[in-house]
Amino acid sequence: MGAGLDLERKYRIALALYAVLAVLVWFTMGEGKIEVFHREIELRWVPIFILATFAFRTVMAMQAERIRRGK
Fold this sequence. Notes:
two-stranded antiparallel ribbon; 73% helix; mainly alpha; single chain
């Protein structure tokens, strides 16, 4: 069971680090705006979206691992 607990710990650390990176991006990016699909959005939302995509993939991978292990 040690490997499962280690994986859970790494999963929680990864999600916490994604959150820390998102906060750092939010407070360090400038106030610029860009046009995406004919809509203006704040520039800081682009890296936030990328980080959210990585976090989503991490959650999906963990759910798949839990299903494989039968939890």
